[in-house]
Amino acid sequence: MRFVVTGANGCVGSHVVDALLGAGHRVDAWVREGADVSNLAGTRAEVVHADYRDVEGMKRLLRGVDAVAHVAGGGLARSKEALFDMNAGMTKRLLEACEVTLVGPRKFVFMSTVAAFGFRKGSAEEPPAPVSDYGEAKREAELSVLTMKHALDVSILRPPMVYGMRDTRLLPLAKAVKRGWHMHPVSGDRLYSLIHATDLAQAVTATFAWGLPSGTVWFPTDGEDHTQRDLAQSMMDGFEALGDSLKRRELTLGKGVLRIAAHINRATAKLRGTTPALHPGKLGDLLETDARCPPCLIAARIDWEPEKTLTQGMEETIAWYRDQGWV
Ligand SMILES: NC(=O)c1ccc[n+]([C@@H]2O[C@H](COP(=O)([O-])OP(=O)(O)OC[C@H]3O[C@@H](n4cnc5c(N)ncnc54)[C@H](OP(=O)(O)O)[C@@H]3O)[C@@H](O)[C@H]2O)c1
Prior knowledge:
By secondary structure, the chain is α/β, with parallel strands linked by helices. The protein has helices at 11-22, 55-61, 80-99, 133-147, 171-178, 197-209, 228-241, 255-272, 280-287, 310-323, and strands spanning 2-6, 26-31, 46-49, 67-70, 107-111, 153-157, 161-163, 181-184, 191-192, 194-196, 216-218, 226-227, 249-252, 290-291.
């Protein structure tokens, strides 16, 4: 089969490209003009420049494609408008390009996030209630995907925090651990679900491979509950596996500090014309003290199982950070 992966140069996208190639498929790796494609170095995929603002252009690129893994998007944006456009807006334009192409894709997998669900404590069947701009933008995108469920075979994945090779979001925490500080944004006891990027990529290929009913939404995780303290400890273990001997002191920032930092970040980033990693539009998710996904009931039905434990996955990640010369 011939697949398109959007956001193919990103952390998750590049792993999805690898997983689909590994399953024997042909892959068009969509990236923006001028994007950093170092994550795709040496790939057998066809790197294709796509303009996600141009529906007609995307329609042409989708000719002869069987399926789309729509991964592009995320929570890093200069403004709320940009955040909604890069998630909800882009998804709507891409779906429009899929819908009007008779020789285009029949299957569509959307990479959403647990933030679109809003960390509800009960079952996955509860109605979504996002608590951040990011979650709301992704939920809007999900609704567009679901309206297409009779025209296309659509599925939605709502992963929790992703880590692994090619991810840089956890790098600041890893750098702090290297300096002997286990930094806890809200609390050391904050509960998480996590997933390693290669396991998430395999979850995408499994979703394509197995005939789930159109409109299926599921939560791939590593199947464990983690605390913020576990995350920092796994990083410390990763450094120690490389022969480092580190101090261990805990530092909890707390909700008030995070709120102030998010607003200062946004103001300074606006002046500098940069994109802040922590901004008020993501705060709601970060302040949740229980950020776990609901239990995953789909995994068994599609014969998918996560392979990486946090200890193994983080050891690899820290070794990769070291190879890059970052820690
Ligand atoms: N990382 C996580 O913890 C996590 C958790 C749950 C869900 N997700 C979802 O997984 C997806 C991939 O995340 P990631 O961690 O791989 O992030 P990433 O490494 O930052 O990659 C994001 C990708 O999306 C593209 N992109 C961003 N803004 C865009 C825009 N306005 N127009 C077109 N392309 C744009 C980027 O292209 P450029 O390189 O050109 O900017 C890049 O290819 C996102 O949809 C995210 O919401 C991530």
